Amino acid sequence: MESTVFEIISELDSFFPKEIEFLPCTEPFRFLVTVILSGSSTDKMAAISAEKLFSAYPNPHSIAGAEREEIEKLIHGSGLFRAKAKNIQELSRIVDQHGIPDTLEELVKLPGVGEKTASCYLQRVKGESAVVVDTHFERTAFRLGLTDTHDRSKASREIKETIDKEYWSRLSDTVNSLGRMFCRPKPKCIECPLSKLCPKVDVKQE
Question: Could you give the CA distance from residue 186 to residue 184 in angstroms, rounded to a whole number?
Answer without folding.
Answer: 5
